[in-house]
Each structure stands twice: as structure tokens, then as C-alpha cells.
Amino acid sequence: MVSRDDPVMMALLRPGVSGGYPQPAQWHRSKARTAMTVSPPDAATISEIIEMALSDHVSFAMISAQHGLGPDQVKALMRAHLKPGSYRAWRKRVRMFSDRREVYK
After folding, report:
1. Which residues constitute the domain of residue 11?
2. If you ran DSSP here, which 8-state letter would residue 17 be given?
3. How many Å apart are CA 21 and CA 99, to the nearest integer?
4. Taking the model in full, what pTM does it have?
5. 18-49 tens-digit pLDDT
6. 52 and 92, same structural domain?
7. Do 10 and 79 contact (CB within 8 A), yes or no?
């Protein structure tokens, strides 16, 4: 059973399609994500991940090494916990830096 509190799993579900179950192309991704996540992070851990992601000096590889989250999971967490405009500004800044530098986030 999927918890409605899990934004990553809820993003994978499409309401109205196959009763809300993940589509076959998404099954592999959803299994990989649930296998990596042992328990939901507490508020302090979420805050630390957001702080690291917002920093221009911390890469996705460093976040992955410390917390075990991949880039897509960090983006989903940021989307779930930031205001829409803040999320868009963060993504724009990360894309801008990644275009200028070969190794960035």
C-alpha cells in the first residue's frame, strides 16, 4: 500500500489510469526507490538535504554519498518541500551552473 505522505510514490501514480496503479514502465523505478528508502527521513534530515541541495558548493554525488538519495529523489524532495517558485528558481540555477561547469550537481 502506498502512503499518500510519500511525494515520490505519489508522483509516480497517475489518477484515473489503471485505478491509480503505476504503469508497467514505472514499476522498475518505483521498486528501486522503495528498496533504497528504508524509512522516511525525519524533519531534521529533510532540512539538511534541502540545505545541501540549495548550496552551490554541494553536488548531487555528495548528497547521495551522505543520505543515499539520487538526483531524481533530491529533485522530488525539493519539489515537495519548497514553494513552486522557489523550486523553479533552484532548478534554473542548477541548470545554469551545470551548463557552465562540467561537474556540478
Report:
1. 1-39
2. S
3. 36
4. 0.58
5. 444 444 444 444 444 545 545 778 899 999 99
6. yes
7. no
